[in-house]
Amino acid sequence: SYKLLPDHKPTMTKKLTVSLLDYGAGNVRSVRNAITSSGYSIIDITSPSQIDEADVIIFPGVGSYESAMTVLQTTGYDNALRAYLAADRPYLGICLGMQTLFESSTEYRDEHSGNTSKTELPGLGVIPGHVIKFDETQRSVPHIGWNGTIAHQNSPAMRYIKDNHGDEVYFVHSYYAPITDNNSKWVLTRTTYEGQEYISSVQKGNVCATQFHPEKSGKTGLNFLKGFLESVEDGTLSNTAPIAVNPNDHTELVKRVVVALDVRSNDHGDLVVTKGDQYDVREKDDDAVTGRGGGRNL
């Protein structure tokens, strides 16, 4: 199971401010809620200079690989991020925030099939390897749902995760990063989707990223975010150690039953989905008082 490493000596003296790289491709409110629920404040990155000034960056990439890399390039964030990551500064990428760390993705080529002028769009090139699409002739695509992870490293970011198996997390993606000899030392966890093994999270030094969505993964996801941020704060994040792995171990999609799914009207007349009595679908943001902003996107 995941354990704190022997040299873990918390020295927390203050709360970090999390720099959030929201490039405008989708709703990242659930990520904001997850960060603030762990007791951390957020500052939005609006210029490349803020990247160098950050204590820790969280990049919740959503949308397509092309849209993510295009925005990073046109804003100048890409070179600032490369310098930040090369200096081994604290970073957490989520979904596309992980995929863009690799050399390239075939998603760009696939979206422009038939146009010979289009070539693969380079990623940040921090991790060796290329992101590719699941084989649609062998399995359902995209991979959506709750799946497990198998640890390849012991990381302080996992300090609140009870076990290597059984704590499922939420995935939604059509493209994945294969495990290769060149990137195997980056692998933090791997996951199996209908026979295909792939990288579900990475870490090397202070650079960490997940293919799954911690902010949508219930208590396990919140515990991961909490462990990651506390590890940054107490300076232990990079204290990882390899774990002996069994290549015959695999994970699988699990069924999740949502109890008492219902629809109701909120105070502003909008219809919102209620998942039992343990979920509050209304926003905590005082500014979100009208329209869709009054309902929480879970």
Please characterize this protein's 3D structure.
The protein is of the alpha/beta class and 298 residues long. It contains 7 helices and 17 strands. It has an 8-stranded mixed sheet with strand order 2-1-3-4-14-13-12-8. A 3-stranded mixed sheet has the order 5-6-11. It is globular. The two termini are 29 Å apart.
Quaternary structure annotation: single chain
How would you write the strand order of the largest sheet? Answer: 2-1-3-4-14-13-12-8
Order of helices and strands: EHEHEHHEHEHEEEEEEEEEHEEE
**Could you give the count of β-strands?**
17
Major sheet details: 8 strands, mixed
Assess the beta-strand content as a share of residues.
Answer: 25-35%
Sequence stretches where pLDDT stays below 50 over 5 or more residues: 7-13, 277-284, 287-298
Number of distinct helices? 7
Calculate the mean pLDDT score and round it. Answer: 84
- The helix fraction, in percent, is 10-25%
Q: How would you sum up the global shape? A: globular
End-to-end Cα distance, whole Å, is 29 Å
Radius of gyration: 19 Å
